[in-house]
Design brief:
Elements: E1 2-3, E2 10-11, H1 39-47, H2 65-71, H3 92-97, H4 99-104, H5 118-137, H6 143-178
C-alpha cells in the first residue's frame, strides 16, 4: 500500500487525489510502498499520538460520521470517485443553465445543450446526472460546500428565467398596446 507524501494517509493506485488533504498523487502502482515524507507524522506515530489501525481493527467510537466523511472526500477524482448519497438527486442549475453550469463545474458534455433538438434531451440528462458529474469533475471542500454551490446555480437559473419572462412579457405587452 502507498501513502500520501503530504499527510501520510494510506492511498490506492486508483486515487488521483488524497481523500484527506487533496494533494495530487503520483502513484506508479500498488506494489510501490512510499512512506510518509512528513517527519511530524512519523514522530506522532512513534510517540503514540496517532494510532495506526490494522485492517481487522475498528476506529475508535469517538470518530464522528462527519469527521469520517471529511476524510473520505473523493470529489474531483473523475470516474473513480465515489459519489456520496447526500448529493444524489435532481440538479436544477444544470437543467436550467446548461453549458454555463457545465463550464463552472468542469462538465463539458453540457455543451451538447447548444445543439438544436438534442439540447432539450441533454438538459434533462444534466438535471438527472448533474450532481454526480459535478462531484466527479471538480474538487469540493465538503458535501456542504458542494450543496451550497449547486443551490447557488439553481437560484441563478431561476433568476435568469424570471428576468427573461419579464423582458419577453414586456416586449409582448408593449407591442399589443401600440397596435
Amino acid at each position: 500500500m502507498a501513502y500520501c507524501s503530504k499527510c501520510g494517509r494510506e492511498v490506492t493506485s486508483k486515487m488521483t487525489y488524497c481523500p484527506a488533504c487533496g494533494k495530487k498523487l503520483a502513484i506508479p502502482n500498488e506494489d510501490t510502498v512510499s512512506m510518509p515524507q512528513n517527519p511530524t507524522i512519523a514522530e506522532a506515530i512513534e510517540s503514540g499520538k496517532i494510532q495506526l489501525l490494522n485492517s481487522h481493527q475498528q476506529p475508535s467510537r469517538d470518530d464522528s460520521p462527519l469527521k469520517q466523511r471529511a476524510q473520505d472526500n473523493t470529489s474531483g477524482q473523475g470516474r473513480l470517485a465515489e459519489v456520496p448519497r447526500e448529493i444524489e438527486g435532481w440538479n436544477w442549475g444544470a437543467f436550467l443553465l446548461g453549458w454555463i453550469w457545465g463550464v463552472g463545474n468542469n462538465t463539458y458534455i453540457s455543451f451538447l445543450t447548444l445543439i438544436p433538438f438534442i439540447g432539450i434531451i441533454v438538459a434533462f440528462v444534466l438535471g438527472t446526472r448533474g450532481n454526480e458529474w459535478a462531484w466527479r469533475n471538480r474538487r469540493w471542500d465538503s458535501i456542504k460546500h458542494f450543496k451550497v454551490a449547486q443551490k447557488n446555480w439553481a437560484d441563478a437559473g431561476i433568476i435568469f428565467y424570471a428576468i427573461a419572462l419579464v423582458v419577453i412579457g414586456g416586449i409582448y405587452l408593449g407591442r399589443g398596446c401600440s397596435l
